[in-house]
Specification:
The complex is a heterodimer of chains A (361) and B (259). Chain A contains 14 helices and no strands. With 361 residues, chain A is mainly alpha-helical. Chain A has two domains: 89 residues, no CATH class; 217 residues, MetI-like fold. The two termini of chain A are 55 Å apart. With 259 residues, chain B is of the alpha/beta class. Chain B has a domain of 180 residues: P-loop containing nucleotide triphosphate hydrolases (Rossmann fold). Chain B has a ten-stranded mixed beta sheet with strand order 5-4-1-2-10-9-3-8-7-6, with helices on both faces. In chain B, a hairpin with a 6-residue loop joins strand 9 and strand 10. Classes of the chains: A mainly alpha (361), B alpha/beta (259). At the A-B interface, helix 9 and helix 10 of A face helix 2, strand 6, helix 3 and helix 6 of B.
Chain lengths: 361, 259
Amino acid sequence: MSLTTAQPTDPGPGPGNPRRELRSGSLPRYFPPALLASSAAVIAGVLLAFSSFGFVLWGVLTALAYTVIAVAASTRIEGGRKAKDRLVTALVYLCFTLAMLPLVSVLWTVLGNGLARFDGYFLSVSMNGVLPGMDAGGAYHAIVGTLAITGLATLISVPVGVMTAVYLVEYARGRMKRAIMFFVDVMTGIPSIVAGLFVVALWILLFGPGATNGAAGAISLAVLMIPVVVRSGEEMLRLVPQDLREASYALGVPKWRTITKVVLPTSAAGLTTGIMLAIARVIGETAPLILTAGSSAVSINWHLFDGQMMSLPVFIYSQVRMGGAVNYERAWAAALTLILVVMLLFFLARMIGRLFAPKSR
Amino acid sequence: MAKRIDVSGLHVYYGDFLAVEDVSMTIEPRSVTAFIGSSGCGKSTFLRTLNRMHEVTPGARAEGKVLLDDMDIYAPDVDPVLVRSEVGMVFQKANPFPTMSIYDNVLAGARLNNRRMSRSAADDLVEESLRGANLWEEVKDRLNKPGSGLSGGQQQRLCIARATAVRPSVLLMDEPCSALDPISTLAIEDLIHKLKEEYTIVIVTHNMQQAARVSDRTAFFNLSAPGKPGKLIEMGETNKIFTRPDKKETENYITGRFG
């Protein structure tokens, strides 16, 4: 290494000794953005000159050129430590960009393809009476189904999940606790199609073969949701300081009231987030719903126990399988609707979380 | 109504580990009793057995007798929840409930116990408790603001107000001033002086001057040897403990020669 300034012949502090120098040269603040912009421009120019312009090549070459030039310039002017900093900073930004790329790309594709058919008409009519190839019909029945099925699944799994989490954190001890936690972990890993099959088998036992309805779909989703709610709820309840429980006990408050009035309100914001994540996980499930709620419903059906029920993911699946141009347009528009529904739910969850969060002013 | 506490032959265990060995003492009503001793010698553990708070820690248990006036709080049919509404506690770190306002914090003990009370009775209880904790003047205009917005000293007085609003007969304080500045400490000590007219107060402290200032009687705890259980070494009038203790160990600790 070139940092040989700590040799025994060190002459001590002096004007010619870089080791005692606290200030070193530094690149101006505008250097990184300016360099990035100029290298991007130059490389774009070169690529266009050779008429081999491509976005991937352009991005890779720009990142490479920026990193090399920035590190070289920094080594010359600022010294080794700063140069390393520049290198690592460039790498971190690069990784961030790589991570964001698929996300942005997905959103962009869905927006681009979905907007063609995404309008009030699409959102407000069902596929009832729409013949193949007809330029009509919408996803209203699928939105209804998604909301109803996911809503019932949430109604089932939130009480079960939160109460299991409370049991695990506040009451369970020893072997019982380890067993429950193990099975919850196993349940987290259940493939969704298996949850669907489980409910199909259950429904055949209860109602005979061929019974498909929304409630069956909701139960298969609940099977998937419960372990997620339990795990996240458990983490959130553990975060509640023991101090607060003790403070409540010391006032002569019984344990169940301590849990309902102190522990749960304190962790309400976190619990809400966990529940929303669980909903987001199941709202896009397709396989169990095809098995349990059916894939051929075309009309609006709010009744969870009566007949097949369409949902947005299944709608996308069945449209894509039909394969016409208009079907693809409907599928993309439904995908956009699904993403918007999830975003809306997250927005609501943020609001609810803020409402519950402990305030200090 | 302040009550007397009589402890006889109390052992405290964490699992198999004996943490406090064979403590017997009498804590007088309407007085302040201070527990002093080095860290880890079992003062706080012992204090928590006085309202069965140690049972919150998994594996902790106590053997022996603790009489509150004439009632054994470890008798098999005694409900620990009721013991705790009779013997209140204030902790080292102020812990107002973050989801509740100042007003609701004071009423927490009553509300969470589902005691029904009229709006005016609740207002009166809040004012009385906050006045009792010398906090009323500072917070009367912002009773509906969250308790966590107060300063550390104010939060601690809020916790004392919250504890007294349950109307216990004994108040246990586990190093209530160790996280506070001298001015807030003084405010709390003044408050302790005032509270002892009505309550039996037990305070754990690491601050010898504080023990000398606020307490009537002092108990000195120590480990018999490293890794051995903590023991009550000596207990007596604060004056006597601090000027001419009977035991050499106590003198060493008080004069700062060890511990």
